[in-house]
Write a structure and sequence with these properties.
- The protein is mostly helical.
- It is built from ten helices and no strands.
- Helix 2 runs antiparallel to helix 3, helix 8 runs parallel beside helix 10 and helix 9 packs antiparallel against helix 10.
- The longest helix has 19 residues.
- The model has no long low-confidence stretch (mean pLDDT about 80).
Length: about 180
């Protein structure tokens, strides 16, 4: 990716992919700066996914203000984009706004227009959040909804992720980690 960027420093895909590599190496601030540059300076951009990735990079770098700014800017350009709204769930949660994060996650997760992966992740979050506050029945209900959604998709990894969330909740309910 660095070779591509030597030829064209504004190549959005190279910026995106190199920032992901930096993030995987724990260089969160550098990754966020590179991703933001790719979103702002590139003539082609990466669409709403670039803004989402930049927001998540800033979140990993513990810069909530920049993460929120990326989401707000992205939603101004791509109103109603569910992947950006999904990133907003994580920023709200990190800011301690759990009720708003859960409300958004349920809205995103229950909307059939939401892309399947974002829908799956939103429902998984919405199932875990009440469990953290001891509302295990509510958590179990949303977890079963997430599992039911995944059962219709036929993608084993996503189904297993939803089943794992539900297993965590059931283990909390019974006090038995083998559940």
């Amino acid at each position: 990716y660095r070779s591509v960027m030597e030829l064209d420093s504004l190549d959005a895909t190279a910026n995106n992919n190199l920032s992901i590599l930096l993030e995987q190496q724990g260089q969160y601030r550098d990754a966020a700066l590179m991703m933001s540059r790719g979103v702002h300076d590139s003539g082609t951009g990466l669409g709403p996914g670039g803004y989402r990735n930049a927001a998540m990079s800033w979140l990993d770098a513990d810069n909530l203000d920049s993460a929120r700014a990326m989401i707000v800017e992205g939603l101004a350009r791509y109103p109603g984009d569910r992947s950006l709204q999904g990133a907003g769930v994580m920023v709200n949660y990190a800011e301690g706004k759990r009720a708003e994060a859960k409300r958004m996650a349920l809205e995103i997760g229950q909307d059939a227009r939401t892309p399947p992966l974002i829908r799956s992740l939103a429902l998984g979050y919405a199932a875990r959040e009440p469990a953290l506050e001891g509302r295990l029945r509510e958590s179990s209900e949303v977890g079963r909804q997430a599992l039911g959604f995944e059962a219709t998709r036929g993608r084993a990894p996503d189904y297993y992720r939803a089943a794992g969330v539900l297993s965590e909740v059931e283990a909390m309910q019974t006090g038995d980690p083998r559940t």
